[in-house]
Structures
1.
Amino acid sequence: MAEMNQNFSIQEEQIYTKWTEQAEAFLAANEALERKELAEIERSRKFRLGANILFTAVMIFSIIQIFFGIVLILIQFPEMSWLKNLLISYF
């Protein structure tokens, strides 16, 4: 009977060890997955920030181009008699 209890204890210990190893492996894999997901989220944040900065720079550049286009048209307006006559006749 004592020998049977001892065998049973050894089996319980082996099962406990096996389950503990599996749990540790699962937790390690889960932790690695979480780190990977956090890195991906951080990458997407940096990408969005870069995209927003690029979009803002393009919009500022476009506004500056439009402004200079208007200035050039206003500078050349006295020389563009056809446009002046067209505007006068239209309005």
2.
Amino acid sequence: MSQNEVATILHVTRQSISKWENGRGYPDLDNLVRLSDIYQLSIDELIRENTELAAKIQANNAEIKEKQVQLKKVNTEIHQNTDEGLILILLVLASALIPPIGMVLPLYAIWRNTKYNSLHKVDCKFNPNFWTNLSA
């Protein structure tokens, strides 16, 4: 039986039937009795939840939360900036005292910072107004 047919029998709109089916609304008591007659089910069977389905939904929700926690942990480990920038700056400044290291270490520091620094994702090369907007 289609939603339109049931809606016509109950004297309600098809959208009301759709809301009831999707759990966004509930029929009043008179319509609930009529629905039980139409579908030849007891009111108890119409109202009662499917406990097996509810258990599966709870298990899926728990698994999703666990996966989200794991993903957040991985993202934090990947993108965490643990004072590495400060250490690199200190090494570069110290390398100014030793000329051969002073030629190589700044290039390594720049490469390391652009590769692993999560704050480097701001692309200021292609935005000519970046520096003017920053100072404003």
